[in-house]
Amino acid sequence: VDNISKDKQSKTVINKPTKQIKDMTEDEKIEDMNKFFKNYEKEIKAFGFLSDYEASRKYLMEHIHLVCDHLASYLVVWCVDLQVEEKKALMQRVAHQTIVVQYIME
Questions:
Q1: How many CB atoms lie within 10 A of CB 37?
Q2: Are 60 and 103 in contact (CB under 8 A)?
């Protein structure tokens, strides 16, 4: 009877313990965020351009390392930059992705 069901996803992700953000100084937090931005900028921008919910979900499942507060921070900063550049349509798309990420993290 138990052979009818199959695993939809059989991937296990084990996070390595890192230095807790609460234990970091303000300078260390800024350095950590800048390092994240630099390392994952292309992947974050690719996510920001997505408009389909299912594509967004799939992308984040494939790039689970992106799902953190730094991702939301990058997207917010990018939205502000786009608004300053008067690229309203793209800014709205990125803002939507920011809301999706924040919803997922809660």
A1: 16
A2: no
**Residue closest to 97 by CA, chosen among 70, 76, 66, 83:** 76
Higher-confidence residue of 46 and 17: namely 46
Indicate whether 63 pLDDT > 60.
yes
Q: How far apart are CA 2 and CA 21, in angstroms?
A: 43
Nearest Cα to 79, choosing from 91, 88, 70? 91
Tokens encoding 34: 């800048």
Number of other CB atoms surrounding residue 88 within 10 Å: 10
Q: For residues 51 and 44, what is the distance between their CA atoms, to the nearest angstrom?
A: 14
Name which of 69, 57, 72, 51 is nearest 9 in CA terms: 57
Average pLDDT over residues 22-40: 89
